[in-house]
Amino acid sequence: MYFINDTFSYKNQGLVFFSNGLSINFIVMIIISPLVLYFYIKDKKNYETSKNNYYQVDIYINSKKYCLTGYLDTGNILKDPYKKRPVIIVNHEKLSFANKKKILVPYQTITNQGLMTCIKPDKVVIDDREIYNCLIGKSDNKFNLNDSDCILPNKFKEELS
Questions:
Q1: Is the pTM of this model over 0.90?
Q2: What residue spans of the chain are helical by DSSP H?
Q3: Domains of the chain
């Protein structure tokens, strides 16, 4: 860059160099700066959007409190077919469903379908807001959403905003 700038931007007469107008560095900065700013702002907006979808979730089952990190997934529209209760999907190793009445909820994904084992929790608190009338479903498939432990349904989007 320095060689190109000296070669094309400066003229010399003997040992004296003088500028011949705008330098190549200045022209390159004018072209590259808007691109760098555009990608920086775009990346920052994407980061803030994804950060706003993570919540602290406290689930109370049989007098036991489970502290999890939840991701609000707008594609999770899983509901109990009878009472239309939304389902919070949790990794199977994070909760114990012992001594609770189990409810089977049918689900369908792109790759398969089946019945998910769910329970009615005693209480669910998401970022200091109590959520009533929901189910907790245990996923046998491990999911990885940037260290989140559970997937919150789309229905909570209005309640958490």
A1: no
A2: 2-9, 24-51, 156-160
A3: 2-51 (no CATH), 55-160 (2.40.70.10)
